[in-house]
Specification:
Elements (H helix, E strand, L loop, with lengths): L21 H22 L3 H14 L4 H13 L3 H14 L4 H13 L3 H13 L5 H13 L3 H13 L5 H13 L3 H14 L4 H13 L3 H8 L2 H5 L22 E5 L4 H7 L3 H5 L4 E6 L4 H7 L4 E4 L3 H4 L7 E4 L3 H5 L17 H14 L4 E4 L8 H4 L9 H4 L5 E4 L6 H11 L15 H9 L3 E5 L2 H9 L3 E5 L19 E5 L6 H17 L4
Parallel strand pairs: 1-2, 1-4, 2-3, 5-6, 5-7, 7-8, 8-9
Amino acid sequence: MAKSESRKQVSGPSEPGLPSKGAVDISRSRHITLANKATHLLTAGKLEPARKLFMEILNENEDDVYAMHGIALIARDMGRLPVAAELMKKALALDPRNPMISSNLGTIYEAMKEYEEALTCYRNSLKWGIRDGAIHNNIGSVLSRLGRRTEALISFRKALKAGVEFPEAMTNMATMLGDLGDYKQAGYYFRRALEIDPENAHAHHNLGVILLRQGLWEEAWFHCEWRMVATNKGVPWRKFSQPLWNGNPFQGARLMLYAEQGIGDEIRFASMIPEAVARGGEVVVECAPRLVSLFQRSFPQVRVVPAKYWPAEEGVEPFDIACPFGTLGRLFRNSKESFPMHSGYLKPDPRLVSMFQERLREAGPGPYVGICWRSGLAGAYRDEHYSTIEDMRPVMNVDGVTYVNLQYDPKPEEFDIVKSEFGVDLVAWDDVDLKMELEKAAALTSCMDLVVSPGTSVAVMAGALGVETVEFRPFPIPDSYFKNGRCPWFPSVRFFVKRQSEKWNKMFRKIAAEIEALKTGSAL
């Protein structure tokens, strides 16, 4: 979700009344003059000169709330968040019901990912007098990170009703609606954001994601091209001097396909490597080092190198054209019909496959069901996309199945739950690092009769290997996305979704029925 910030202006000094003594009056007047000058410098981004002026005031009067507030803002803008929080709390102690100080303390807590504290501060700023839709937007942003989507949606609506007309508010609202499955309204707000700021990379990128979910491929890829700016703090591309490939034939030339997203996306977009090769000349594929040997075996017609491949970036090794992996979608996947049927395009190491087949036979009889339940990336906003191991009880209650761990970062206590509460010995080996040893991960996954996973690289790997996969998701996906009822990228992958209000348990009971059918040899 696009992150918004509270407005960073410093509130003016709150004068209780004019002092009675001339010397004090002169000192106060001087401090106000210094503070106003410091505020102008701060607004202009001249942090060090502003800091010196605020410190001059505090050295003479350590209880000057204006200067304390200002020095806290400078610490925040310098990225010294714990220091900024302590200073801002001192300022609030000096003026306990100052709404602007409370709001700015909220921005610091939010940057520190202390979302409950940020929420309290933002709500206090409303209670104490700020009548600003930007605060409602900030509240909505924090609530969404806490997974409290319905409340967040209400706050975003209040922000827009209050007349907030900045792209971050529109984008926040649209992202929330998209995650709740209201794609029409989500598209409306993304487009409003782009009317205000046509160059807003976050709005473009997030609109592209929403359009991808609807299977509106051609328009989606146009907006997704903004992803590099949206996700890399304004850095548009890698440092390649070669022109961007436009998809045309390039006989006699050398193309560099380079990595720019996560492992799952690299595997997904690798499905289009053969189509790039078919356009003509030499193709060099850059990918995560963990994928190099797997990709080289799977695509022997290209040369695979580890990212970041400095000879290409520094011009030591010549290339004629370059293309980021994600842009292949715009070139080759502009309609549902453009997605080919396949039974898997990754080729695991046969030696490792044989080894795992033998190990699995020793571990228990088939069918073999590989399970993953979450991503390694945590956070309230992300966590709602994943289950806990406890949620998977209905799945692992099916007898006569050998369950295999595909979770690449399992915790010991999760294995304890599976053993003590489910009575299941989840198959795993200490000499297999599923995160870093992707050759082993691919070989083991290829031995599964079924994989059950959320939308992580585990499901992507299974789909790229052609393994029958059930991918569970927390929000609905429109029918327009699917091809023959399955994921267009991976014909072996089906989605099981739940409503936002539902618990995972109900959906896992449906998946358990699929596993029962697998035992009897029924078609999945």
